[in-house]
Amino acid sequence: MTAKDDPAAHSLFQDALLDETAKLGIVRARFEGFDKSSFDELIVGYSSMKVLTYSSSASIINRAAEEMERLEIVFGRPDILGDMASYLHFQELLLKELIDATRGKDFIKEKIESGAIKLYVVQDIISHEKLFLLEGDAGTRVITGSANFSERAFSGAQNESYVCFDDDPAACEHFDSAYERIRDRSTTSIIERAQIDGEFDAANIPALSPARKDSKSPKVILVQDGPPDLSTVHKAVRSRPPKRYGGISSAIETKGGVAKIDRQAAQRAVRYVKSNSRTQEENPEEYLSIHPDSGLVVISGKELDLNVPAEAVETDVRVWLEYFSGYRLFKGQHEKLARDYFMFWSWFYAGPFVCDLRNSALARGEEVWDYPVFGLLYGKSNCGKSELVKTLLLSMFGKEGFPPNDWFTKGQVPVLMEQNRRYPLVFDDMDKTRFGQHGTALIKDDHVRMKDYPPVVLSMNAGQDTFDSEIRKRALIVYTGASLPDHTGEARKLGRRVKQIKANLGTALYREYLSRMLPPLRQERQDPLDVLELSSSVLRGIISEHATSSDSLPDWCRIVTMDEYGRSRHDRVREELVQQWLHDPAAWSRRGDKIIFRSEDIHGTVAKLRRDVPDYLYGSGTKGNVIVFEADELQKFLGVSILSKKSPIAALTRLLGGSPR
Q1: CA 313, CA 507: separation in Å to the nearest integer?
Q2: Could you tell me the CATH number of the domain that includes residue 68?
Q3: What is the largest CA-CA distance in the chain?
Q4: Cα dihedral angle (271, 272, 275, 276), rounded to 10 degrees?
Q5: Which of 117, 124, 426, 634 could make a disulfide contact with 457, Cβ separation 3.0–4.6 Å?
Q6: How many domains are contained in the chain?
Q7: Do 177 and 297 sit in the same domain of this protein?
Q8: Under 8 Å CB-to-CB from 369, ≥6 apart: which residues?
Q9: CB 166 within 8 A of CB 141
Q10: How sure is the predictor about 193, in pLDDT bands with cuts at 50, 70 and 90?
Q11: Residue range 4-20: average pLDDT?
């Protein structure tokens, strides 16, 4: 028997739509007057509130929870019942928002535990109605109209209609009956544990409640065979559910628009969602939440203590100074390596705040390029890239580890960013092919559509030796030119020393850093903030204050700015141009105010230089195997006059047997 022919299924459809599909329900009212009021004025004098809302905001829920002795909210969405995946994703997002709303607010948690606050989510009814039912010493009040239960809807900032019935027994009875009918017959209670646990658990998704041991009966969910009719606006903003829900049909079977979720099906669904959120045991789901206004920092549900003993900070500072002293053993420009790694450290520590700075910049109509989300470490092997990132993670969260690189895709990275919130996402030893397939698109689409999202780090060896200008403009890129050959005794000795150093490293320095970063970030500002300057100055201040008196501050520990970084991000191509001159001076010539470079290696050397060299260096006439540079700009860029016989490079060329032309 099909669902269409099944009387039980037919009854379900009738019940779900509350037997009111044939005719429109009309409330007859009479206009008595018009006035203006605020949300606080509307609820003063009342102690109980029942809310039926299409959407909501956490802040107004908190305000109502503070004022009301009893609060009930039914969350309804008309556009989520098109498929089970969207339905479950909606409930996940709702739970996460409620968890964030109650974090740090013990009085709300107490009301939830006592039953004074009850929350429900629609199960099988398409609910777009908005109702606010109040009772108390002031009497009774019914508010209905277009306004959702959100701060913006009750701010007066947008056009909404509010129809109010005060002390009207007939209106109170009618709307209270409608509210209770939807609540009792078409909703699922959000269990208290889901709101007060402090972190999201797929087992607490209301639709999957049969998976819990205390569940008494199967749950029947009405899922429309086709998606509901959406407005043009909803079609534009509706997002696809993340991949962890994409194959949920393998766990929950839907027939004729009806899904019956018993305990076995719910447990399968919970396992499916969890296994597709993080698929490797060694990489459990971690997240970081920072609330700048309250100063609350939460790592995977645990509040971080920002009151740090000075002795613990001194220990961490001593460890970091010893760690960076190891770079003196590296071959090549080890001083520059240490400076660049400190700059990266400054950006990485500030990474969890970048989403706030970017969102503020977007609200002011500014570009966000000075607040890079992506950080790229690339260069020679054995230069300490991976070890540095591991040590930074250890100093922040007391643990290290990277997700597998096959998670780095255009589809999966946004999901991981949503899961991590502000917890850094790091991919180590990224290969050139995967970066080309996914990295470029992810970095160029840098207007992330989330409130909270983390910095993303990619480390690569020298095989990835070129980035186009759009990548360089949007990402923080550090080229590592010094290294320590791994076959030497020094390398093995340093490796053992690093292990000993890290064994003494705690999280005190980072917690002290957070406590100092939060106050300036709370300040209202109209001008852009230099995130590197702020972060490096905070780090330098902590290190200088807690270093022992015998320690002089090393040269690498200095304040760095985004302007300084901007000048250094072309170090790799600057080195490449110098090497081209040293190895093949005959390829260079000068004509008036132009410097000309010729090479027969069109698809290699020429193509690479044309991708890497900043556009402003080019003069007219660049084509084929010829690159034309503006002489003055090129010499400023390189810091030397490459065709002058007095330049150090010309002297070196003559010394090696060449002769500048």
Answers
A1: 8
A2: 3.30.870.10
A3: 103
A4: -160
A5: 426
A6: 3
A7: no
A8: 446, 473, 474
A9: yes
A10: low
A11: 42
Kindly state whether residue 284 falls inside one of the protein's structural domains: no
Mark which of 276, 302, 320 sits at the end of a domain: 276
Residues 423, 537 share a domain: yes
Task: Write the DSSP symbol of residue 202.
Answer: G
Residue among 118, 124, 125, 147 at smallest CA distance from 38? 147
DSSP H helices in 206-256: 232-237
* 331 is a domain residue: yes
* Measured distance CA(352)–CA(370) in Å, rounded: 15
Query: Is 396 contained in some domain?
Result: yes
Q: Judge if 564 and 578 occupy the same domain.
A: no
Whole-number Å distance between alpha carbons of 39 and 20: 32
Residue 227, classified by CB atoms within 10 Å of its CB into exposed (0-12), middle (13-18) or buried (19+), is middle
Between CA 217 and CA 6 the distance in angstroms is 20
**Same domain, yes or no: 548 and 585:** no
Same domain for 380 and 457, yes or no, is: yes
What b/e sequence results for 289-319 when a residue is b if at least 16 CB atoms lie within 10 Å of its CB, and e otherwise? bbeeeeeebbbeeeebebebeeebbbbbbbb
* Structural contact between residues 370 and 376, judged by C-beta atoms closer than 8 angstroms: no
- Of 97-101, 346-350, 415-419, 652-656, highest mean pLDDT: 346-350
> Phi-psi region for residue 291, left (φ > 0), alpha (ψ -120 to 50) or beta?
beta
Beta-bridged to residue 626, according to DSSP, are 598, 623
How far CA 187 is from CA of 58, 121, 132, 190, 212, in Å, comes to: 20, 5, 17, 9, 17
Q: What is the domain range of residue 577?
A: 571-655
The 3-state DSSP class for residue 291 equals strand
Single residue among 532, 552, 568 that ends a domain in this structure: 568
Closest CA to 337 of 213, 478, 476, 436: 478
Bridge partner list, 302 = 299
Measure the CA–CA gap between 329 and 502, rounded to whole angstroms: 18
Tens of pLDDT, residues 225-237: 344 444 433 433 3
User: Residue type for 348, please?
Assistant: F
CB 222 within 8 A of CB 18: no
195-209 per-position pLDDT tens digit: 555 666 777 777 776
Tokens linked to 350: 């500030």
Pairing of strands 374-379, 302-303: unpaired
Question: How much of the chain is in helix, strand and coil states, percent to nearest 5?
Answer: 45, 15, 40
Which secondary structure element, helix H or strand E, spans residue 370, and what is its range?
A: none
Task: Collect all residues with Cβ–Cβ distance below 8 Å to 619 and sequence separation of at least 6.
Answer: 593, 594, 628, 629, 630
- Alpha-carbon torsion (196, 202, 206, 209), positive or negative: negative
Question: Domain check: are 371 and 436 in the same one?
Answer: yes
**Cα 502–chain centre separation:** 28
Run of H or E residues at 529: none
Amino acid symbol at 43: I
H or E stretch including 159?
Answer: none
pLDDT of 188 above 70 = no
3-class DSSP assignment, residue 217? coil
Do 495 and 397 fall within a single domain? yes
Q: How far apart are CA 525 and CA 238, in angstroms?
A: 32
CB 288, CB 422: distance < 8 Å: yes
Contact present, 222 and 126 (Cβ < 8 Å) = no
Q: Report the candidate in 566, 564, 574, 499 with the shortest Cα–Cα distance to residue 537.
A: 564
Q: pLDDT of 612-641, one tens digit each?
A: 787 778 878 888 888 888 888 888 887 765
Helix (H) or strand (E) holding 519, with range, is: helix 508-522
One-letter amino acid of 359: N
410, two tokens = 């255009």
Report yes or no on 281 lying in a domain.
Answer: no
The tokens for 250 are 């393998």
